[in-house]
Specification:
Helices cover about 50% and strands about 15% of the residues. It is built from twelve helices and eight strands. The model has no long low-confidence stretch (mean pLDDT about 95).
Length: about 250
C-alpha cells in the first residue's frame, strides 16, 4: 500500500484536479459519485445512472435463443464475464465441492466468458470434480438464452475490487435470477437487501457461499421470489430505455 500510494500519486493528483474542476458530475453509481464529491466543492448534487441493460432487447434475445434441452432435475448456476484476477471463481468451486460432499450431485456450474485464467479455473474444477461447463466467449444473444434458463447467479468479486454496479449484475437482474454475491461494494449489497434479491456472502469464504447456495438449492419458492424481486430491481434501476434518458 505505501509503495502503490507513492507510485500512483501523480495519477491521483490529476484525477483530483479534474474532479475539483468539474461543474457537473455524472457517475455510473453513487459510490463513484461520492469519490468525486470528496474533492469537488462546487457541486451540491450529482447525477448517477447505472450501466444496466436494455430490458426489451434482453427479453427478445431470451425468447429467440431459448434453451430447450435443460434436464428437469438439474440446478444451473451461472457466471458471466471475464475469467481474470478480479473474479474469485475458486471460492465458488470450493463451495460447490462442499455441497457435492453432502451428496448434492445435480448442480451444474456454467461459466460464460473468456480470460487469462480460464485454463486455471478449468483445471481447478476438474481437480474438485465439479460439474462445470466453460462455454468460452459467446455472442450476447446466446449468452442471454443460456442465462435465462439458469436458476442462480454468482457475483464472486475478489476482496478490494474498485468496481461498483458492474455490467454483469444488470444482466443477472434482467434474467430474474437470485444472486450469490461476494462483492464488497456497499451500494450493491444494500440494493440486494432492499429488494431481497439474493444473499451477500463473506468475501473469500467458501463455507458461507455454500450455506447460502444451499438455502436457494433446497427452496425453489425462495429462488423464484428472489428472482422476481431482482427483476423488479432491474425494471426500477437498470433499464437503459428509462434510465439513460436522464
Amino acid at each position: 500500500p505505501i509503495i502503490s500510494d507513492i507510485l500512483f500519486y501523480p495519477m491521483k493528483r490529476q484525477a483530483d484536479y479534474i474532479y475539483a474542476a468539474a461543474d457537473e458530475i455524472i457517475a455510473v453509481s453513487q459510490t463513484y459519485a461520492n469519490r468525486a464529491l470528496k474533492i469537488n466543492k462546487k457541486c451540491k448534487s450529482v447525477n448517477y445512472v447505472y450501466l444496466g441493460t436494455d430490458l426489451a432487447t434482453f427479453d427478445h434475445f431470451a425468447k429467440s435463443n431459448k434453451i430447450m434441452d435443460k434436464p428437469k432435475d438439474e440446478i444451473w448456476i451461472a457466471y458471466i464475464g471475464t475469467l481474470g484476477h478480479s473474479y474469485d471463481l475458486m471460492s465458488v468451486i470450493d463451495a460447490l465441492k462442499k455441497l457435492k460432499d453432502r451428496g448434492i450431485n445435480n448442480i451444474k456450474f456454467i461459466i460464460m466468458g473468456n480470460g487469462p485464467l480460464k485454463s486455471k479455473f478449468e483445471k481447478y474444477a476438474k481437480v474438485k470434480d465439479i460439474n462445470a461447463e466453460f462455454t468460452g466467449k459467446l455472442s450476447y444473444e446466446k449468452m442471454v438464452g443460456i442465462l435465462k434458463m439458469c436458476d442462480i447467479a454468482v457475483n464472486p468479486i475478489r476482496k478490494g475490487s474498485a468496481g461498483s454496479i458492474i455490467n454483469k449484475v444488470g444482466d443477472y437482474a434482467a434474467a430474474g435470477l437470485p444472486v450469490i454475491n461476494t462483492q464488497e461494494c456497499r451500494e450493491y449489497q444494500e440494493l440486494l437487501k432492499k429488494y431481497n434479491a439474493g444473499f451477500n456472502c463473506i468475501n473469500g469464504d467458501p463455507q458461507d457461499i455454500a450455506e447460502k447456495l444451499y438455502k436457494l438449492y433446497i427452496n425453489s419458492e425462495l429462488r423464484k421470489e428472489m428472482g422476481r424481486n431482482y427483476r423488479i430491481l432491474a425494471e426500477d434501476n437498470f433499464d437503459r430505455r428509462k434510465t439513460y434518458n436522464k
